[in-house]
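Memo to structure team: turn this sequence into structure tokens by end of day. - J.P.
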Amino acid sequence: MQKPDLSFWKLWNLSFGFFGVQIAYALQSGNISRIFRTLGADPHDLSYFWILPPLMGILVQPIVGTLSDRTWTRFGRRIPYLFIGAAVAVAVMCLLPNSGSLGLSISSVMIFGLVMLMLLDTSINMAMQPFKMLVGDMVNEKQKAKAYSIQSFLCNAGSVVGFVFPFFFTWIGLKNTAPEGVVPDSVIWSFYVGAAILILCVIYTILKVKEWNPQEYEMYNGAPCNPPVGDINTGGEQAPPAGGPRGASWFVLLRNAPSTFWKVGLVQFFCWAAFLYMWTYVVDAVSETVWNTTDPTTNGYQTAANWTGILYAIQAMGSVCWAIILPRFSNTKVAYAASLLLGGIGFALIPFCPDKYMQIIPFLLIGCAWAAMLAMPFTFVTNALQGYGHMGAYLGLFNGTICVPQIVAALCGGSILSLIGHHQSSMMIVAGVLLALGAVCVSFITEKSDKNKITK
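Reply from structure team:
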């Protein structure tokens, strides 16, 4: 049976909590390198700190997806995981930026910071994945692109807020510098306020969204939702879904995955490696290019870090604008490839913009790539997975195409930095080349012609 059309506000409510989750994610991605550099990390070791976030993602999201496929409670099947992840994230966001204020030795501070980072990314991943699953569960194919576009808008709006927070709190008078090894108040309070917004947004989604019961899920999705034995009587034997029987292992699911799953994954590899290098090195790259310093104890470096937050926000706003333009393309593959190519050009321009306002242009271009990366892969993949069953497990496994490239890039980051002459700004050119390769790989994706148009 065809899933019913949902009103705009029902689609909005499905994803609204993502706004708060994305504030947390923006604070993490925009400030982790800044925090660890402030705590004393060497630039050549900086990429190793970024192994933890994708590693937690590749472990947590398939587990959350698989468990939620087999869960049913009176609160729903995805929402319990959303609430638990958000609650843990709030606690960790209050602890992480205080790593340097606990009177610990440098080595102990690094270990404590790493543990907090691991817990933060674990909880963010646990809170983030259910929103993607809710769209896959409850939105029909015709409205799916629109639903993911709304999710993309909320994601970018949350990013703007999270990225601007340190600049804003500095502007209203909080200190932007601190003793050596201590994180400035502007960053600490950004995490505090972000945590409060996160939990409020998640509570809103929990109150507004009612998930389907097992019978409704099976009626609309054409595949069992793997409820506990005895929860549902199907009234007869059914053929197993294309992805495999209910108890199929992850290896069986991957073996049976549609080719689109893997082809989109190849594009994802280059895209997420590129963005990992941005998150790792862009604060130093902007500071080096515009303020001529990479010393985290200087006011220039901390000012550059705040300005980088503004540039991230500009990237997010550019992404929102580009997301409005994307549906006007007649072919998703052309839109996807063009977006990634524009982003690659943006990365390559960063080292050649010595004025802080000139840096706005590259980040607007990077926003084009980010808009496409947030919406299009899941549109391709969830359309290809119709009838396969195990939607949550597959989307959790698909998260590996986000996490694995970041892990590989993080492991190689220090070596690449040494090879190109120890200049963090040059890592932006590396990122640009990677996005261009991703654009080329879009041509490998095959999809039925009747699904090639992006619907609003």
